[in-house]
Amino acid sequence: MESKPTILILGKLPPPIIGPAIATNIILNSRLKEQFNLVHFDTRINAEVATMGKWSFAKLFKSFELYRKYKAVIKKEQPELILVPISQTTMGFVKDAPFIRIGAKYAKVVVQLRGSNFKNWLAASGSFTNSFVKKTLKKCAGVIVLGNNLTHLFEAYFTAEQIFVVPNGGNYELQTKKETELTILYLANFLPSKSFDDVLKALVILKEKGITNFKMNAAGAWDNETFKQQCLTIIADNQLDNVTLFKPQAGEAKMQLFADADVFVFCPKMPEGHPWVIVEAMANGLPVIATDQGAIIESVIDGENGFIVPAEQPLVIAEKLEQLIKDAALRKQFSEQSKTVYQTNFTEEKMVENLKGVFDAVLEGDFV
């Protein structure tokens, strides 16, 4: 019997509950196990969102220990291919680079970007950083991005054949709707970049117009006390009694929030990749109001299964919410289209199929 190719998957696992960790968990438990010998190497250092991106001597020592263990795992498992998620910050990429450089000595390395800010970061960085990134990526066999409109990020480093598109995809145990009142849902970490404050300002605009025949559920983790107080002040000062805040939700509780919702709103003002919450919202058949960040517009088709609005525009968010609150037929139309788009493009089976295509192409190709 022919042995399965060994693929070493680098990545964090929850906690914290963030997109890359969710993706790693899905990949490791997917049907890819049937075609490949998947070996996981956990690169997690941060146990919570608040400590991410913050430097410390303890984290530095942990990083060096990780590199040592990583090399030992490679020698033991002898993978043919190594999948390395990369950061789009200088500190993050410097931490990722040894995984690429060490791995490339033993196997083909494919890097994966789970965001869309790569070019912006390098444009704001010096020549030394740009040179370091270029030399490091030169050791790779290819790169994976989350959407077709993100392939341009790596055109300066890879050929078209080396740039692969693998959108996020997952399968979910959907729950039965229990809420009878029309419900709007925000579900993401409460970061300033995710613009939850703009959603709250939109609710204030609706209230001033006398539109209060709905409730809003919002769930996530706070990482910024100042931003938290700003949001709580908007709620208190404007008596937004129809807003309920939840701690981060997972599993059945999370899916129940989606099931109880009628509209999903997520309007980040900073670059995103392909947010998992968008996939989850579509799986639950929700109309989506979102901004044009990363690969979102490849999921949320303006006027078909939701609305794409400008960033930092509470007034426009309010207008689209009003339209969906008042028009049940439109909500139903968008809901059905969300389900169709999800089932066609963003299931776990589709993601696994796309990822298998990448692995096969790199293992069989001669890119490096």
Short description:
By secondary structure, this protein is α/β, with parallel strands linked by helices.
Structural class: alpha/beta
Number of strands: 12
Strand content: 15-25%
Q: Which CATH architecture of the largest domain?
A: 3-Layer(aba) Sandwich
In CATH, the topology of the largest domain is named Rossmann fold
Sheet of most strands: 6 strands, parallel
Query: Can you give the helix content as a percent range?
Result: 40-55%
For the termini, the CA-CA separation is 29 Å
Total DSSP helices: 13
CATH superfamily of the largest domain: Glycogen Phosphorylase B
As for the number of domains, it is 2
Principal-axis shape:
globular
In CATH's first tier, which class of the largest domain applies?
Answer: Alpha Beta
Mean pLDDT: 93
Describe the structure.
The protein is α/β, with parallel strands linked by helices and 368 residues long. It folds into two domains: 6-170 and 347-364, Rossmann fold, CATH 3.40.50; 183-345, Glycogen Phosphorylase B (Rossmann fold). Helices cover 43% and strands 15% of the residues. It has helices at residues 19-28, 32-35, 57-77, 90-103, 118-123, 127-137, 196-208, 225-237, 251-260, 276-283, 314-326, 328-345, 348-364; strands at 6-11, 37-42, 81-86, 108-113, 142-145, 163-165, 183-187, 215-219, 243-246, 263-266, 288-291, 306-309. The strands form two sheets. Strands 2-1-3-4-5-6 form a six-stranded parallel β-sheet, with helices on both faces. A six-stranded parallel β-sheet has the order 9-8-7-10-11-12, with helices on both faces. The model is unreliable at 48-52 (pLDDT under 50).
